[in-house]
Amino acid sequence: QNDDADTFSGMVKIGGGAFVMGAGEREMRGRDSLPQQLVEVREFYLDAKAVTNAEYRAFRKATKYRSDAEKYGWSFVLELHATEQAKASTDQTVKDAPHWLAVPKASWRYPQGPGSSVADRLDYPVVHMSWNDAKAYCKWAGKRLPTETEWEMAARRPFVGGTNPSKPYPWGDEMPNNDSEWRLNLWQGNFPLSDAALDGFSGVAPAGAFGPHGAGGFNM
What pLDDT is attached to residue 2? Predict the structure, then answer.
């Protein structure tokens, strides 16, 4: 691709180089976390913000593409954020996670189930997307999905490099708390029973609500 303004509008350039990938001792590690390792990444471009409902709607109008959730006729919705109509429409849940409801007609158009809408949330990230949906959108937009390595490198900026110690957050070591300014959208409360919305948003936040951080991205 040519490095021109039209091609890369709304994207940030992430310089290539080596960095230590993987969760460090001060970060939360899951059962699938890999050991830290030094990896090399080539220069790449990344959207500064997540794909919004407005952007996905433009794709839908141009291509008539139907998402997997629309094809299947249902998707999962967190019970706490589901509409009353959604709750009344199903008794299907995940066996070991009953807070996730299998809601008929839930899709990117109706993110919290029937009775919800994206009309007043066009600047929010599009949800209920599958890998197939994301690939289709990227092909239409002339882009591609980032690799896991690329994503982590961008999210860790500016604390990257072969000799730099990793940090748990783009701003450093300070854990988000009520006594400081909220700099990202995450859950505050007793998941999945209560959402205190201390960052100003119950559930997801607009794509450009927090940032830009070290690499120029938002909500990373």
Answer: 42
- Residue 7 pLDDT level (bands cut at 50, 70, 90): low
- Please give the Cα distance from 115 to 119 (Å, whole number): 12
Distance, in Å, from the CA atom of 113 to the CA atom of 102, rounded to the nearest integer, reads 10
The pTM score is: 0.90
216 or 169: which carries more pLDDT confidence? Answer: 216
Contact 213, 205 (CB under 8 A): no
Q: Which residues contact 49 (CB under 8 A, 6 or more apart)?
A: 10, 207, 208, 217, 218, 219
| Contact of 105 with 50, CB cutoff 8 Å | no
Output the pLDDT for position 62. 98
Answer for the pair 181, 199: CB distance below 8 angstroms, yes or no.
Answer: no
Q: What angle do CA 21, 220, 9 make, to 5 degrees?
A: 105
> Can the peptide bond before residue 165 be classed as cis, meaning omega within 30 degrees of 0?
no
204 Cβ neighbours under 8 A, 6+ residues apart:
124, 125, 127, 185
- The amino acid occupying position 169 is Y
Q: Among 102, 71, 70, 108, which Cα is nearest to 86's?
A: 102
